[in-house]
Amino acid sequence: MGRGLAVSLGLIRRNLLLVRRMPSVFIPAMVMPLFILIATAGAFHGIGALPAFAGASYLAFTLPMAATMGGGFAGVNSGMTLARDLEYGFFSRLQASPAPRISLIAGPIGAAMVRSLFTSTVVFVAATAAGAPWPGLGNALIVYLLAMGFAACAACWATGVALRTKSVQAAPLMQVVVFISVFCSVAYTPRDALTGWLRHVADYNPVTRVLEASRAAELVGISWSKLWPGLVSLGALLAVLLVFSLSGFRKLTTE
Fold first, then answer.
1. In whole angstroms, how far apart are CA 9 and each of 2, 4, 90, 238?
2. Where are the domains of the chain?
C-alpha cells in the first residue's frame, strides 16, 4: 500500500514537473478552455435572453462547461504523457518494478486532477473579470470538484488509449471523444431547449448531469437534488473508464 502510494505520488510530481519542462504541451490545454469561454459567451450572449435561460448571464452559464472541458484537456494531457513514456521506454521500467499496476494509472489520473485546478482557476478569473457573478466559495468548490472528476474520467480514457496504441499519435482519438462527450450534452443550452437527436443523446449522456450540477452551483446555488445525479454519473463513468484503462495492461503483457 505504502509503496503504491509513493509510486503514484512520484508520477504525479513527475507529470507536474513536465509542465515546466514542456510548456508547449500544457499551455494549449490551459488556453483552450479560456478560448471556449470567450468565444462562446461572446458569440451567443444574446440567446441568454431566451426564456429557457431564466435571465441568467450566458457568460456564467458557459463557465461550468469551460471548466469541465479544461478538466477534459488535463486528462488528455496525462494520456499523452503516458504515451510518450511508452514510446521512449520509461514506462517499461515502471512495469518491471514491484509497484502495483493501479499505482501506475493513479499517477496520471492524480496529475490530471491537479492540472484541472489550474484550468478552472483561469476560467474563473477570466469570467469574473468579464462580469460573471461570483457564486460563493462553496458553490465554486463544487464546480472545481466536478471538473476534477471529469479530468479523472478523461485521464482514464486517454491512458487506456495510450496503453493500447503506445503512441502519442493517438492523441486526436483521445481528444475527439472528450470533445464529443461534452458538446453532445448541454454544453450550449439547457436540456429543455434542445430538440431532435441532440436532445436524445443529451438525455443519456452522463456528462449532461455533470454539467447540470456544475451549472446549478454557478447560477443558483447547489442543492443535493441537483448534485447527486452529477456525482452518480461521474462515479459510474469513472468506474467504467478505470476498467478500460487497467485492461490496457493486458494488451502490453500479451505483446
1. 11, 9, 17, 20
2. 2-253
Do the Cβ atoms of 41 and 62 come closer than 8 Å? yes
Please say whether the beta carbons of 85 and 225 come within 8 A. Answer: no
- Please name the amino acid found at residue 95: Q
189 closest CA partner among 213, 166, 211, 167:
211
Calpha distance 126→139 (Å, rounded):
17
Cα–Cα dist 250/57, whole Å: 48
What is the grid cell recorded at 239? Answer: 468506474
Using one digit for the tens of pLDDT, what is the confidence trace for 153-197?
A: 999 999 999 999 988 899 999 999 999 999 999 988 888 888 899
Cα gap 150→70, rounded to integer Å: 9
Greatest pairwise CA separation for the chain in angstroms? 59
pLDDT tens, residue by residue, 190-238: 888 888 999 999 999 999 999 999 999 998 888 899 899 999 999 999 9
Does this model's pTM top 0.70?
A: yes
Asked if residue 241 lies in contact with residue 153, where contact means CB atoms within 8 angstroms, the answer is yes
